Amino acid sequence: MLGQAVRRFTTSAVRSSHYGEGPGNNLPFSVQNKWRLLAGMVLFFGSGFAFPFVVVRHHILKK
């Protein structure tokens, strides 16, 4: 009895999802244009990598 209710709930939850089928459709960004994706990833990860160097340079020049 409980197993049937759980099964009905899980199948209805899967059907009611608003994501399309296929790889990349459930991501919050588009993966269709590889150059735009590359630019976005370089900006995102590059800013996190460069931040400590910018802070150190700021403190060295602040004297």
TrEMBL record:
Subcellular location: Mitochondrion inner membrane
Protein name: Cytochrome c oxidase subunit 7C, mitochondrial
Pathway info: Energy metabolism; oxidative phosphorylation
Lineage: Eukaryota, Metazoa, Chordata, Craniata, Vertebrata
Membrane topology: Single-pass membrane protein
Segments crossing the lipid bilayer: 35-56
Region span, Disordered: 1-24
Entry's Gene Ontology BP terms: mitochondrial electron transport, cytochrome c to oxygen
GO cellular component terms, A-Z: mitochondrial inner membrane; respiratory chain complex IV
Pfam family, one: COX7C
Designated gene of the protein: cox7c
Organism: Cottoperca gobio (Frogmouth)
